[in-house]
Amino acid sequence: MPHILVVEDEQHLAYGIKFNLEAEGYTVTAVGDGQAALEAVGAAAPHIDLVVLDLMLPGMSGYAVCEAIRARGNNLPIVMLTARTLVEDRIRGFDAGTDVYLQKPFDLEELLSVVRNLLARRGRDERAAAGAGTTSGDTAAVGRDTVHRFGAAEVNFETWEARSRGQPIRLTNLEMKLLRYLVEHDGKVVSREELLTKVWGMARAPATRTVDTFMLNLRKYFENDPSRPVHFLSVRGTGYRFVGDSARPAATEG
Please, which of 154, 168, 182, 223 could form a disulfide with 242 given CB 3.0 to 4.6 Å? Predict the structure, then answer.
């Protein structure tokens, strides 16, 4: 069964989360601080499949833990829990690399649903990576009707699998949502404010470079030369435009 790491210094809350996750059949390890969390994630065994991470921890914040995990190149799903309500706090969590941000007090069923969905997606990613050496770019197995292709990339929005130049790419939850929104608006200019409200779910769009950071990631994953993009284009003073293969000759923005 999947192994979940719960990082929470409030013992009663940690116990409650652990108890309910175990009742769902998961293996659960609970720790109370950031350093212990990093040691657990970095250990060869037992393997951690998902992290439920509190923001306010002694010694090292949840932001710092999340950033340290991502700095190691580890894309395991991270669910951040916090009592903070400001939009800026949510943005900082997303910037640090969290996949889902749940506000305390959270609904238990919502947490369990988030965990199930993130683990299901991680399983699909791992199967895609394992099969990359045998598929050699053949997309018949993933369903022609659900695969979107551009350049050397192919993305299946039904199974959340992505490849670029024949190699699997593991996108975070938000990276996949952003990519899908851009593809659905192929050729159209979308503002940063629109992306923050539609993709990030912000009630308002504060000044932030979050979208720019995520767009740089997509360029790194899918562009042959990220410094000279042909698919993920900046529109000065406005936002971005995704250009699929059919529209590339008309693209002039840089």
Answer: 182
